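Re: beginner question about structure tokens

> Can someone show what the tokenized structure looks like for a real chain? I only ever see the sequence side.

Sure, here's an example I had lying around. Input first:
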Amino acid sequence: MNRIALQLLDVEGWRELSRRERWSPPSPDVVAAVRRIVAAVRVGGDTAVREWTRQLDGCDIATTRIAGSAIAAAWDSTSDALRTALSFTADRLRSFHDAQRETAPRGDAMARLVPQPLRRAACYVPGGRAAYPSTVLMSVIPAQVAGVPSIAVASPPDANGSVHPLVLAACHLLGVDEVHAMGGAQAIAALAYGTETVQQAAKIVGPGNAYVTLAKHEVSTSTGIDQLAGPSEIVVVASRGAEPELIAADLVSQLEHDPLAWALCLTDDAALARAVQTAFGSAAGGAARSGIIAEAAGRHAAVVVCESMHEALAESDAFAPEHLSLQGEAAESLSDSVTAAGAVYCGRWSPVSLGDYIAGPNHTLPTQGAARHRGPLSVLDFMRWPAVVRFDEATYRTLAPTACVLAEAEGLGAHETALRARLGAA
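And the corresponding structure tokens:
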């Protein structure tokens, strides 16, 4: 078993690491490659998707859409235990997201916002290092609850040109019959612009690698996206009495996602910090993905000793992590004071790993500081709120003179003319 070290930093050292590493710009070569792929698919459609899939994924796929029989067969070949787990999780997630559904207009009969589901959503499910049926559940269920009538799933092809059977099984469970074996920037472009066989989506959701994220940015002027997802992040704010072995386990659990993942423990107890360091070395060295964990830990993992819990929380809020875990009585008492975190997990019985699967709130969370302005993926991400205005004459004659004053002040004479044309009417 390899011993993997966790850095011990003071607050200034931590701040410097965060400033230096967190918002580093993407490689110009990767940006150029993504733009080239996206432009090719926008013009070339299915032919370009096929060519880029052949080049990047090493398989030649004539038709990206997976046959319904293959989707059903994947469910049939899934073990009873896993089918039960997926079904139980789906029911729990659906119940949680049902509470978010909006059906009532906001406003009155003359001016209101009317909630409407998007016409079509695309859910990207990453592949590569692992299969993520949980991401199928987390992205498709809120879209279904919102009432989106057309939902497509895209996921990178395997060596046989299909999609991982666990992803297909989750799609079958949810009744999704449109699944495409395509990944990376070419998949995002196909979903954003449409091809001969892939219908354009109103919104694309789901995490992915740097190519996927940059492609979502590239197409975001043409279609909606949920967010620009970065590597997984966890911050543990821990006070005296917290259990170092549990803290270490939680840090390791998020580092196994990605060599660029972040894991931080902030504490005001120097003895606890040293204990977390020791426990981390044992937990990380014995993990199945120890190579990935070691690379991530060497870049973006640390335990930081702060002067107080107040300082620890302030540092967490400044970082605005994807996942925030509060462990220890004093730390847990701060839950209502958190101002920036994608999700907050309080106490030893609420680990982040439970939230990744079955806690209820969505596991698609803001990263790279976006928790300052948004929370988890939700039903509302799959809805639009168009305004509907229908005034009667009396109301118009009450409001229009004020609008005329404002139009004149802004120098928009045609606006004022359009308003006064109606004021002059009988």
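Each token stands for a local structural state, so reading them left to right follows the chain. The chain has a mean pLDDT of 95.
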